[in-house]
Amino acid sequence: MRIAIVDEWPVFALGLTQVLSESGFQAFPTSPRMLQDSGRDGVDGIMLAPEAVPELPIHEAVTKAAAIAPVLLLTQRPDADVRQVGRASGARGIVHRGVRVEVLSEAVRTVVRGGEFFDPCDAVGEDAPAVPGSAVLSLREREVIWHIARGKTNQQIARILKISPHTVDTYIRRVRSKLGVGNKAELACVALRYPATEPTTGRGLN
Predict the structure, then answer these.
(1) Tens of pLDDT along 25-59?
(2) Residue 8 pLDDT > 90, yes or no?
(3) What's the pTM?
(4) Does domain 134-193 have CATH number 2.40.10.240?
(5) pLDDT (tens digit, 9 = 90+) per residue, 54-96?
(6) Domain-by-domain residue ranges, the chain?
C-alpha cells in the first residue's frame, strides 16, 4: 500500500516514512502540489497535515486530497472543530503527532482499507487528559487499558484476561480515579495514548 505524506515538517515526514515502511507500507513524503492533480494514480492513502497547505482552508484541502485517495489527517492536538470539518469534507480519520507507532499503523491500515479511524481525544477536545508515566497504574490495570485502546468491551476483556466482568469494572474505576478521567471518551483517549503493556494471561495480578 502506497501512502503519500503531505506535511510541513520535512524531518517529521521522513520519520513517518521510516515508521510506516517498517510497518509494511510504501510511504513517501510529497509536495502539497499533488492535491492539484486529481488524476494521480498509484496512491492508496494520503496522510495530510492541514498546516502544509496554509493557502487552503481545511475543508478545501481535505476535499482535494479525498478526490485522489482516502485521507488520514495529521494534527498537532485534539481539536473537535478539525474533526468536524475534516470528517464533513471527506477525511476517513484523524491522528495526532504524538500517537504511538502501533496506533498510527492501525489508523493508516484502517483508512486505506475503507474504514474510519477517529481518535476519541478529538471528541474531548483541548481538555483531553494528560497521560502520566506507566508506573501510576498496576500491571493488570495497564493490561485492561491495552485492551480498551483496541476497542474491546468489558465482557471481552474479562474473557481474555480470565477474570470476572465485575473485576474488570473495578480496574476501570481504579484507572479513572488514578488518571482523573470521567466519561468514556476521556478513558478511551487515555487508553489510546497510555504506554502499551502487552497482556499476559489471567493470573490474578493486582
Answers:
(1) 999 999 888 887 655 568 999 999 988 988 889 89
(2) no
(3) 0.64
(4) no
(5) 888 989 999 999 999 999 998 876 566 777 888 899 999 988 8
(6) 2-126, 134-193
φ, ψ of residue 150 to 5 degrees: the values are: -105, 15
> What is the grid cell recorded at 78?
485534539
Architecture of domain 2-126: 3-Layer(aba) Sandwich (3.40)
Three-class SS of the chain? CEEEEECCCHHHHHHHHHHHHHCCCEEEECCHHHHHCCCCCCCCEEEECHHHCCCCCHHHHHHHHHCCCCEEEEECCCCHHHHHHHHHCCCCEEEECCCCHHHHHHHHHHHHCCCCEECHHHHHHHHCCCCCCHHHCCHHHHHHHHHHCCCCCHHHHHHHHCCCHHHHHHHHHHHHHHHCCCCHHHHHHHHHHCCCCCCCCCCCCC
| C-alpha–C-alpha distance, residues 42 and 165, integer Å | 47
Q: Cell numbers 493486582 label which residue?
A: 206
Residue 133, pLDDT score: 52
**Which residues make Cβ contacts (< 8 Å) with residue 190, sequence separation at least 6?**
129, 131, 145, 175, 179, 181
Residue 106 grid cell: 492501525
Cell numbers that stand for 46 in this block = 494520503
**pLDDT (0 to 100) of residue 39:** 53
Longest dimension (CA), the chain: 57
Is the Cβ–Cβ distance between 108 and 5 less than 8 Å? Answer: no
Same fold, 2-126 and 134-193: no
